[in-house]
Amino acid sequence: MLRLDGVTVRFGERTALDAVDLEVAAHETVCVLGPSGSGKSTLLRVVAGLQQADAGRVLLSGRDQSGVPPHRRGVGLMFQDHQLFPQRDVAGNVAFGPRMHRTDRAETGRRVAELLDLVGLPGAGGRAVTALSGGEQQRVALARALAPEPKLLMLDEPLGQLDRGLRERLVVELRSLFRRLGTTVLAVTHDHGEAFALADRVVVMENGRIAQAGTPLEVWQRPASAFVARFLGFDNITAATVHGERAATGWGHIAVPQGTPQGSTLLLVRPGGVLLRPPDEGLRCTVEARTFRGGDASTVTVLLRPHEGPALEAACTLRDAPEEGIEVGVVFDPREVVALHGGDRADAEPPTEPVSSRS
Ligand SMILES: Nc1ncnc2c1ncn2[C@@H]1O[C@H](COP(=O)(O)OP(=O)(O)OP(=O)(O)O)[C@@H](O)[C@H]1O
């Protein structure tokens, strides 16, 4: 459906997109994730035809789009600030696209009613958009983007303005809506939770380049680099030297999964793999802080200051969370240890020679 071949966009000295290759299959939902300034919006704009590429090609259904104006590309775009027309009512907003395409009045009316049903606003056609809540406006914007039946729907921070509860609900609704309609979606967000809930595939951007692409599970389980891991909120990263199924790290020798690449690398230990023990067992640490995360499991993040090596984050239940200031021991669960390939080593603490052997 969509293919980007080596697309580069420069703004003066700054390269917003750097030779990006990307494919989106029909009926697929792809979420582009990345920190502010990584090039996400530029990617959408170049596909929509709102931004010229300095190099490379954008193909839609196999056709090169250079020279094709935005309104001829058959893509729908929904911006983060909805950009509804305040002087038109809900139906007037949703009908905008079909009218532009000269769809007849009866057919437009049918489509508007159907879309308002789909987005959970049945019979709201006559309401003023200025009198709607943020979440309702978001739904109208979505119905408006879907109305011309675009072959590709692009969403820029679709749920950015909404509060957490509404976001979590809408993300589930959107996913099932896109499934039902068979819509092909390219969405942009800086929120990995939102991307993972919505996407069949996620693409993580770093400085105009694709740092990693894969299913949400693949990216979550095997972040490709320290950058991706940190972006996903993982901070337990250390330089390491792997030998067999053990690694020398800043936290001492730890067990690693079978098949871990040998030699010098970066290792990530997910917080769930940092197991708390009595102080005389494993790596001795001081409990520096605890942060209650809520959720069904009453999760607590425990920040630990090891007597040697970089800081560590452990995840445990509220019941098991140690008091701040006390000493604990830490052992590592090898199933939660991941080697980061292509890692930017400068991002981690320098390798330190472990003083003793631990597991
Ligand atoms: N019109 C422009 N003129 C100059 N520089 C621009 C322009 N648009 C984007 N940039 C620069 O290109 C880079 C990528 O911007 P882009 O808006 O694509 O990032 P983003 O990942 O969408 O960020 P955000 O999450 O903050 O929206 C940034 O460094 C930005 O400052």
Automatic annotation (TrEMBL):
This is ABC transporter ATP-binding protein. Keywords: ATP-binding, Nucleotide-binding, Transport. GO terms for molecular function: ATP binding. It holds the Pfam family ABC_tran. The keyword Nucleotide-binding applies. PANTHER family: SPERMIDINE/PUTRESCINE IMPORT ATP-BINDING PROTEIN POTA (PTHR42781), SPERMIDINE_PUTRESCINE IMPORT ATP-BINDING PROTEIN POTA (PTHR42781:SF4). It comes from Streptomyces smyrnaeus. It comes from the Bacteria. Residues 2-232 form the ABC transporter domain.
